[in-house]
Write a structure and sequence with these properties.
Layout (H helix, E strand, L loop, with lengths): L20 H20 L2 H4 L6 H5 L6 H13 L7 E7 L6 E8 L14 H12 L6 E7 L5 E8 H8 L5 H7 L1 E4 L2 H12 L1
Parallel strand pairs: 2-3
Antiparallel strand pairs: 1-2, 3-4, 4-5
Helix pairs in contact: 4-5, 5-6
Length: 196
């Protein structure tokens, strides 16, 4: 004879899995947001994992001799060089060079204190002379009174040469100039102030 036991046993608890379909979708969504934020704020470039476009393009040491020649040409043109810095950057893997002229108002640069009647045409003359130094592109960057970049303009030096020889009109030259700004309203107000 066997005795029936009425002992009730609870079914064994199921282990909770960390990978349910809903959790996997949530983890993927969070991962995409984190990756997107990292790319937007350029975290890989800031911590040195990835080189930025400028670092990839200009990996060679700046050419100080050519920069000195460009600075001398700016002074010879009668431009105020207080707050002006010149860099000539060789483009890696090519024979091209880019001349970067930085006009920094926080270091004393002012268009009005220039001894030149037309500083833009003088810059174009200097850019045309720069081609003789093997410089293929000229760039001008303007920094405001707080030292923040306000505007950048670049053009091929062959366009500056053609303009100085009368082969390009003002309109044709402006089609070859690339202008960029981070703060459009500040850039417009700076131009208005300079035109007064």
């Amino acid at each position: 004879m066997t005795e029936a036991t009425d002992v009730k046993t609870k079914p064994p608890k199921k282990k909770k899995r960390w990978y349910s379909p809903g959790k996997i979708i949530l983890y993927l969504f969070v991962l995409i947001i984190v990756a997107g934020a990292g790319l937007f704020f350029r975290i890989p470039q800031k911590i040195g994992l990835v080189k930025g476009p400028a670092e990839q393009l200009f990996t060679i040491t700046p050419d100080s001799e050519k920069a000195a020649v460009v600075m001398a040409d700016l002074q010879a043109a009668g431009l105020n060089t207080q707050g002006v810095e010149v860099y000539v950057l060789p483009v890696s893997g090519t024979d091209d060079n880019v001349a970067m002229v930085v006009l920094d108002a926080s270091k004393g640069f002012n268009f009005n204190s220039s001894g030149s009647a037309d500083p833009v045409k003088d810059f174009l003359t200097v850019a045309a002379k720069a081609q003789q130094q093997g410089i293929n592109r000229a760039a001008v960057a303007y920094y405001d009174e707080n030292g923040k970049p306000l505007a950048t303009a670049t053009l091929p030096t062959d366009a500056a040469v053609a303009y100085s020889q009368g082969k390009l009109t003002d309109r044709q030259l402006m089609e070859k100039v690339d202008v960029g700004t981070d703060n459009l309203w500040a850039f417009i107000s700076m131009i208005r102030e300079q035109l007064k």
